[in-house]
Amino acid sequence: MTAAGAETTGHAFAALRDAAAAARTEGRVADAIGCYATLRQDFPDRPEPFVDSAALLAEIGSPAEAKIVLAAGRIRFPTERTIIAAQAALGDETAAAALPDEAERRFAPGHLPASADLRSDPSRTAAPSPPAPGRPPAPTDWTGARRLLAGFVSLGAAEGGGELARLRRAYGVGDRGLLDGADLSPDHLTAMLDAGFAGVDAPETTDLRTLPPAVEGEAASWALADRRGWFIARTALAPATLDGPVALAAGRAWLRAGAAALATELRSGRRCFVYRMTALAPAPVLDRLRRALRGRRLVVLCAPDAAHPAGSVTRQPDGLLVGRVPTLHAFDEARGADRIACWLAVLAAAARDEVRQPAAVEEHADQLLETA
Residue 10 phi/psi, 5° resolution? Predict the structure, then answer.
């Protein structure tokens, strides 16, 4: 990161922390807690939000909640002196060891980096507790699902982006990436890749908008739109929590960090990239996109049709893999498990660079993961 970039990121962090402190001083507890949650998610390398939010919880008479926050902080920063001192000040120096499961449950995957998520421990192969409403049912082989999903990076979608990213976060795989929830056409994705993400966070190219909830029952979100038409990306920031100027500063910092992380992924070429569209784009459009990826592995996910049922994976004449998957906009109890099994089957085939025809009834998710 350049000195200018570091300075801008520092300003965004300071602006959010100041907003949280002001809300705390003015007695707007819910706003302050929301600001601290945003800080933990968007600045995962900083321990201060854990200490600040724990202090607020202790101040309003919730010491048990404060200890849980600090336990989550100790998971992320096991040797951070400030967090250890704050834990001791609450009268329980061993809370980090005693409360890891509760801290993990309260701080859902996606709010902590994958390295801090207890489920990233390969020794934990048992399924977690039943998921909360709006979370997908988990296969018994939780570790297998995580390992499979960790091998893919989302490049957004032509419309309704975010399905793969929501599935990854639901299973505790990584944080919100630059294009995880982005809507962009294949031509705009190609232009962005060709330009190396230049200017994605610049004031003259970035607009702040409000998007309705992606899932019924969730809150509206701030979204970042590139004025060149490159993308519209939903953020984790809520208008009810942050006003526009603060959200824009934090959002630009997130864009900059996300662009750097995605550029690193593209350089390494270790993982497979996924782009979602409803109907398969014409061959010349896909060819330009593949050239922009410079040989990196790509799988395109489309809606099923009469010739290509859900769960199938076919190979285009130029070698491009195309998977057919149902929508994952709602993880309902009746159909959620079957839809997730279908996605896992398609991704497992893509990971092996294989074509696939689905069985009459999709196999159980555990079986799909055995050879992934």
Answer: -60, -40
Q: What is the pLDDT of residue 371?
A: 43
Q: What is the mean pLDDT of each run of 10 residues along the chain (372 residues)?
A: 52 81 79 79 81 84 77 74 78 48 40 29 33 44 80 87 77 74 90 92 90 75 88 79 78 82 88 93 94 94 91 94 85 64 91 82 44 42
Give me the amino acid identity at 369. L
* Lookup: tokens for 38: 């945003």
| CA 372 – CA 358 distance, rounded (Å) | 16
Q: How many domains does the chain have?
A: 1
Instruction: Report if residue 77 sits inside a domain.
Output: no
From CA 245, how far away is CA 205, in angstroms rounded? 15
CA R_g for the chain? 21
| 2, burial (CB in 10 Å: exposed 0-12, middle 13-18, buried 19+) | exposed
State the pLDDT at residue 194: 94
Compute the distance between CA of residue 344 and CA of residue 362 in angstroms, rounded to an integer.
10
Expressed as residue numbers, the domain containing 297 is 131-369
SS3 letters across 262-325: HHHHHHHCCCEEEEECCCCCCHHHHHHHHHHCCCCCEEEEECCCCCCCCCCEEECCCCCEEEEC
Crossing angle for the helix pair 3-25 and 244-268, to the nearest 10 degrees: 140
